[in-house]
Amino acid sequence: MNRKKQFTEGLITNNPVLVQQIGMCATMAITTTLFNGVGMGLSVLIILTCCNVVISAIRKIIPGEIRLAIFVVVIAGFVTIVDLLLQAFVPALSEALGVFIPLIVVNCIIIGRAEAFCQKSPVKDSFFDGIFQGLGYTCVLIVMCVVREFLGAGRFGGGLIDVTNGFRFTLDGTGAGIQIFPESYGMSIMSLPFGGFLTLGFLIAAMQYALKKAEDKKAKRAEEEKKEAEESC
Amino acid sequence: MNETKEKLLFDVTYQPQVRTVRDTQRIMLDVIVATLPIVGFGVYRFGWHVLLLVVSSMAAAVFFEWGYRRLLKKSLTIDDLSAAVTGLLLVMVLPPQTPVWMAVIGDFFAIVIVKQLYGGIGKNFLNPALAGRAFLTASYSGVLTVVVIDGVTTATPLGFLKAGEAMPFTLAQSFFGAIPGSIGEISSFAILAGAAYLIARKVIRWRIPLAVIGTVFCVSLIFGHSGYSHLDWALQNVCAGGVMFTGIFMATDYATSPVTINGQVLYGIGIGLLTMLIRYFGGYAEGCSYAILIMNLCTWSIDKLCHRRQFGVSRAEFAAQKKAKKEAVS
Amino acid sequence: MNKILKLSLVLFLISAIVAGVLGVINNITAPVIDAQRQAKTAAAFASVLKADRFEELEFNNPDFPTVQTVHKAEGVGYVVTSVFSGAQGNITLAVGVDNDYKCTGISVIEHSETSGLGANAASTGEVGVNFRAQFVGQDEGIALANAGGSIDALTGATITSRAITEAVATSIRAVKSLA
Q1: Are B141 and C146 a contacting pair at CB < 8 A?
Q2: Which of A10, A175, B207, B311, CA to CA, is 20 to 30 A from C103?
Q3: Which domain holds residue C127?
Q4: How far does A213 lie from chain B, in Å, by closest CA?
C-alpha cells in the first residue's frame, strides 16, 4: 500500500476526528492547554500504533466471533501500560488528563482502526496506519488547543512553553505559556465544554469546505481532460 | 422571488393570512422606537456611557451582519434593521458598567454564530441577544454578574431577595426604576410604555408577555418567601428583575417563539415557571434569560403539540388524522 | 462445543498474555509511582502548614468517615488528609489547621476531576492558586459564596468546589474533636 496515500488519508482526507468523526469526546474535553493536547495526542498515537501492530500480527488467529472482545483486551492492556508509565514518569500530564487516559480504552479511533483496517492488513501497513492516524488526531487536538487557549485565556502553549527565563520547553507541565493578551479579556467560555463544541464544529465545517473545494477542482479538471481528449480525437 | 420572501418574511401563523404593507424593516423600527424611553431612562440613570454602549453595539451588530453576508456572497439584509435591534437589545440586558469591547464580542456571537450560521433572520432557533448575553456572562462572570453604578458595586433587588435579606427598595422605586440592575430592566414604567406602543402597533401580541408575567406573579404569590408579605414578594418579583423587559421584548421574538395561540400561552407559562424555579432554587439570583433560552429550544415541539385543526376539517377527521400520523411513526 | 472451547481458549490465552505484560509493567512502575506519591504528600504537608516535623496521630472517630490521617506538628497545628467524592471520583485533600482551628492552607493530593474545570482546584496556574488561597484563615463555618459564605466556586465546577469546601470544614471539626 502507498505510504503517501496513507499519510494524506490519516492527516486530511480520512482524518479520524474531522472526517470519520470518531473519538470526539476526549477531543472536546481535554483541549484546553497545548500541554494537554500534545500529551493526549501522543498517548493516543503510541497506543494506536501498538494496538494496530499487535492486532494485525494476531489477525489470523483471532476468531471472527470474538474479535471485539480481543480488541478490547489488547487495547485495555496498552492503555493501562501507558497510563502506568505516565503516572510514573510524567505525573503532571497524568494529572492533567485525569480520567481521559483510561478512557482511551473506549476511544473509537482505536477500535475503529482495528476493525476497519488492521484485521485485514499486514503488520507494516497497520504500523504506518497507526502513526498517520495518530498524527491526524494529534494535529486536530493541537489546532483545537491553540484556538481555545488563545480565545479563552489569551495564551499560547500553556504548560509546554515557558518564557519567564528565556524561551524553553517545559515537559513537566509547569510552563505558564506565552501570554498574548491579558487573561481577563479572554472568553473563558471557550475553555469550557461549550467552547470545545464550538471549535470542533468550526473545524469540521472548514475541513468539509476544503475537501469539497478540492473535489470540485478535481472533477472540473477531469472533465476538461475528457473534453480535450474528445477534441483531439 | 427570493428577494420578496426575504423582505416579507412574515409567516408567523398558519393560513389564512392577510397581506399587509408591514415588513421586517417597519417592525424593527417600531421595536427601536419602543425602546427609546428605556434607553432614555438608562442614560438618565447610568450616564452617557449607556448611550455609547447602545450606539457602538448597534453599529457592531450591523457591521458583523454586513460582513458575514458580504463574505459569503449572500443577499445583504442589514436594511431590515434586525441586526441593529439585536445589538440594541443585547445592551439592554447587560449591566451598565459593561465595557464597549465586551458588548462587541457579544454582538459577534449573537449575529454570526447564533443568527447567521443558522441561515440568518427568521431561521435562528435561539434569541440572538439573549444568547449573546449568556455567552458574555459565562465568559466574563466576574465583570457582568454584578452591577456597578458610579464605581460602586451594588446588589440588585433580586440579589437581596435571593439572600433573604430585607429589601431596601420600595415597590414604587422598583416600578419606576430607582434600583440597580441591567440597563434595560430597571424601569418597569418605561418598559410598559414601550410595550403599549408595540401592542398598539400590533408588533407583538399580549399573550406571551401576559403569560410570562402572570406566571411569575402567580407562582411567587402562592409560594411567597419568609420575611416578605406574599403580595409584596410577588410584585417585587415582577418589577424588580428582568421579567418585564425580557418577557415583552425577548420572549416575543417571532423566530424563536411558537406561532400557534395555545403554543404561545404554553411557552409563556414555561418561561415564567423556569424563571421562578431558577430564582427559588438556582445559583443565580435572576433566571429569566436562561428560562427564555430553554423555552426557545422547546418552541418547535410546542408548535407541534399545539397544531391546530385546519379549516373545513371536522374534529373527528382531525382526531383520525392525528392517530394515523402516530401509527405511521410507530 | 468444540468451537466454544476454541473461542474461550483463544480469549483466555490473549488475556493471560496481556495480564502477564501488565504485571511486569506494574512491577517496574509501582515503586516509582509510590515514591512520587510520598514525595507529593510531603510537599503537600509542607505547603499547607509551616512545620518541620509531622507526627502521625491515632485517629478513628466514626463521626468523620472521610478523614484518613491526622498529623500533628508540635506547637504549630495539624494536617488532616481526607478522601471524599468530588464530581468525577475521589479527591484526596490535605488541610492544614492551626491551634486556633483556622485553616492554614489546602492542597489537593489526588483527584480525577474534569480537566480544565474541576481539575483547576489542583492546578499550579493562577486559577488554582487563587482558589486555594481563599481557604486560608477560614474557620469551620466556611461555605461557598452562593451558600452565604465567602469562597468563590471555580467556573463550571460548583460540585468540586462545594466538596472541597465541605471537606475543609470537616477537617477543622475533626481537629476540634481531638481537643
Answers
A1: no
A2: A175
A3: 48-178
A4: 15
